[in-house]
From TrEMBL, chain A:
CDD domains: FN3 (cd00063). Residues 335-428, 433-528, 622-733 form the Fibronectin type-III domain. It comes from the Eukaryota. Heterodimer composed of OSMR and IL6ST (type II OSM receptor). Heterodimer with IL31RA to form the IL31 receptor. Its main location: membrane. The lineage of its organism: Eukaryota, Metazoa, Chordata, Craniata, Vertebrata. This is Oncostatin-M-specific receptor subunit beta. Gene3D superfamilies: Immunoglobulins. The chain crosses the membrane at residues 737-758.
TrEMBL record, chain B:
Belongs to the LIF/OSM family. This is Leukemia inhibitory factor. The keyword Metal-binding does not apply. Keywords: Cytokine, Disulfide bond, Glycoprotein, Growth factor, Secreted, Signal. GO terms for molecular function: cytokine activity; growth factor activity; leukemia inhibitory factor receptor binding. PROSITE patterns: LIF_OSM. Coiled coil: none annotated. LIF has the capacity to induce terminal differentiation in leukemic cells. Its activities include the induction of hematopoietic differentiation in normal and myeloid leukemia cells, the induction of neuronal cell differentiation, and the stimulation of acute-phase protein synthesis in hepatocytes.
Amino acid sequence: MALFVVFQTTFFLTLLSLRTYQSEVLAERLPLTPVSLKVSTNSIHQSLHLQWTVHNLPYHQELKMVFQIQISRIETSNVVWVGNYSTTVKWNQVLHWSWESELPLECATHFVRIKSVMDDASFPEPNFWSNWSSWEEVSVQDSLEKGILFVFPKDKLVEEGSNVTICYVSRNIQNNVSCYLEGKQIHGEQLDPHVTAFNLNSVPFIRNRGTNIYCEASQGNVSKGIEGIVLFVSKVLEEPKDFSCETQDFKTLHCTWDPGTDTALGWSKQPSQSYTLFESFSGEKKLCTHKNWCNWQITQDSQETYNFTLIAENYLRKRSVNILFNLTHRVYLMNPFNVDFENVNATNAIMTWKVHSMRNDFTCLCQIELHGEGKMMQYDVSIKVNGEYFLSELEPATEYMARVRCADASHFWKWSEWSGQNFTTLEAAPSEAPDVWRSVNSEPGNHTVTLFWKPLSKLHANGKILFYNVVVENLDKPSRSELRSIPAPANSTKLILDRCSYQICVTANNSVGASPASIIVISADPENKEVEEERIAGTDGGFSLSWKPQPGDVIGYVVDWCDHPQDVLQWKNVGPNTTSTVISTDAFRPGVRYDFRIYGLSTKRIACLLEKKTGYSQELAPSDNPHVLVDMLTSHSFTLSWKDYSTESQPGFIQGYHVYLKSKARQCHPRFQKAVLSDGSECCKYKIDNPEEKALIVDNLKPESSYEIFVTPFTSAGEGPNATFTKVTTPDEHSSMLIHILLPMVFCVLLIMIVCYLKSQWIKETCYPDIPDPYKSSILSLIKFKENPHLTIMNVSDCIPDAIEVVSKPEGTKIQILGTRKSLTETELTKPNYLYLLPTEKNHSGPGPCICFENFTYNQAASDSGFCGHVPVSPKAPPSMLGLMTSPENVLKALEKNYMNSLGEVPAGETSLNYVSQLASPMSGDKDSLPTNPVEPPYCSEYKMQMAVPLRLALPRPTENSSLSSITLLDPGEHYR
Amino acid sequence: MASSCLSPGVVPLLLVLHWKHGAGSPLPITPVNATCAIRHPCHNNLMNQIRSQLAQLNGSANALFILYYTAQGEPFPNNLDKLCGPNVTDFPPFHANGTEKAKLVELYRIVVYLGTSLGNITRDQKILNPSALSLHSKLNATADILRGLLSNVLCRLCSKYHVGHVDVTYGPDTSGKDVFQKKKLGCQLLGKYKETIAVLAQAF
């Protein structure tokens, strides 16, 4: 027993010591230090991949451990990340862990170290951290290719709105490097002389082809190169919307959803998001090939409840939505078929259709829509398989469209698609009488009645109106009636009726029958009742008309008018108890006058004109101005008149006229007021308020003044168009007086001249006879004046000629007389060459010798031998000389001097004939009168003749031709010869 | 007869004539003294066709270049000299004063180089710029003409000068490059193409 106790004690002690030893051994070997740390890089994901093992792990034992990892950048002291990684570690297990760097690995050297601690419940406290492993350096820069500039990360894929760090590595620190994002420079933080990092916060999505980010190295202004990267920014994956599933045949579930934005990127950097359907009860999964729908095959194991999860996924994100439903609650029926109509008549039809059978006890709820005449009616009906519905209260001759859709009546999910068909109801007789009106033109002996009717509305026509029947019945002679059928679509007809009363019935007819008749009576009395026209004002809504009720019974009133410019008669029926109405139509145009006539319809259906009204829906300003005539113009007034101006054909009621007057005077005339024209000029204005007053006397004007006038009509909308002013100038105040005096004077002078002309012979004989009477000569008075008793005047009768000496003139001597061109030779044939001054023998009464002298004064031919007053003119003589020589003054002067030389005191005014003494030398001794005479014919001084020079011949016109006239008078050729 | 068609000299030619976009594997090297054999007789006016094709390429090169760099976005359009300069390494040389045979051989090398490069560019742009249809169309048209030109040059070399083999180099493989580098290399290649094709059109 003692031995047993000793043995037991020894066993326990041994066991205790073994346990103690074991604990000591574990305590010595722990902490378990990570060893064989290796770090690799993944440039695409910019991640460090760590792998290590843990030594000293017990064989076949799993321990839960925590590893603390420390990552430094550029230098070990610059720790950028510290974190723990917990895992269960087996003996000899290689552990893996990754860390993604926000800074591209190529831009900085990274250092990694790790330590661990046991975190296993089987090993009670105290646990403590192992030592750090040695730093593991990771540098990717060394693997860069040749080049002076590198930009990282390459082709990185990020999500819109995320933060991205990019960096560049410049081999030459002398280079100045600038970086740009979409052309806009970005600024970064220099990590070391070669490396600069840029933090781009919340990068935007620009395009699915990626965003170019580039850096340019330069020295001074010299570019050393451009390098860049393309950053692919993806849109954020959205959660699918409106996810639902349904079945039409209990074989296939059709699931649909709204996918939202497509996150596909160019360069195959990211395809469109994928969609996967997962059903949790069956555990089945299906990758959907379409982005917005997917079909799921229903298995035959009668699964009723489904729990679907739709998973959307791209490279960056995963989204999912879930629905749970019972299959029988998601029945979407196929649309009904065999839709048809039976027993279609004018107002009823039966609609039939079929639905696809789902199961035996299946009940459908169907909805029917009936569209027609712009209206829609809806009916619901429950059916099994074959549907039928009675459509009533339909309109005749109307096309309808009926359609039907159905749904599961027990668990309504959604309506099926519509199935429809058109049908047309049959025609019926028109249900309403046509609206008829008339216009009557009374002529001697008959009436011309024009009937108008409005086409029946489709509602009342009940079909296509084929013709109208017009029955004309003579009320005075009832036996006579006439039927006229007028084919549609005519809406009027003309009747010529005699002076009897007529009843006219109009019906509209379609293929089924006639409408009720519309009756109108034309009385025998002419409709020439004088009714005063009243002006009314239209409004935007039309014309508001009111009238006095017709005495006696009326069945209604009719207002008619003409539409312009179509000139179509329009009318409106008004009830018997109404005495006002508003005529409103879109046909009313501004500036058009509308005439309304209001008729009362008696119980005998005879229309009686009650009132006339006229007005404009909107008055406009006059379109033209009157043509103004100015008359009765005096020095102080004139009259304006525009009688031809029509006030009726204007786009508004002419209310009067404005007369504008412009003058130089600043003050306006009485009755005129100052006004300013549209061009800013001032003038005077006179307003005429009576449109029929079309004349105005403008008075109080100044003589010899200019005025401008302008007359324009005005309506309530304004004046007529602007136009030019008419100028009026008042005459001189004395001019009329002068006219009053001068006209009679001129008349008197003319009268005297006419008398003188008519009595010229008498005057000539009286005042200046051809042969002067010596006894009447002034010489006689001169002699008497000198009182010479010895001198006597020889009496002609005393002279008895002894002989007659005939001196013949050379033939051919011709002198053309100016104007007549008649030679003197011809003239002389009828006249003696000499005047027989001596008395014939039987007449001889005087005893003394007779002196006979030749009187050249009366011999025109004498001039051919030369005239001293005329100087032959050399063709080369200057015109000035000619003028001197031939001027009438010179000639007259010369002649006057000759008179004086020869006759002394003989007054020149006593005779018109100038006597020239034969003894006198008219020209040679008169050098003063013709001092410039260059050529003086020598024989002129020798020529002595007594002649009379008719003034009309001696005084040529003082023109340049005057010399020629002289030459013509005295032919030079002849003269020189 | 079949054995003659598949002679060592013809296989590389067929490969070149039917290259696909991005076909970057080098042609197997054939002996220099390999016989030249072609399946179809060459056209009579080959040189005229070659000239015409060169002129056609020269006429469209600038438009292609503009379309390309515009589609790449900034900074390409405004930094052509820095990003799209014609400094392409390994581009086959061309000596305009050489003999026709030498010029045709050099032209052959250049067209092969351009063909592979354009194939890479077309592939890259279809992925990167799927909506740039005008650019794709222009690239495809250019590649088509280059293929025709290559066929004609080969025919000429074979029929007249009995050259059955030409050592060629291909454009750089851009598949491992990042997107920006692909854009840049493509732009440089098209810049070089525009410059070279003008010289070639002038030389023939």
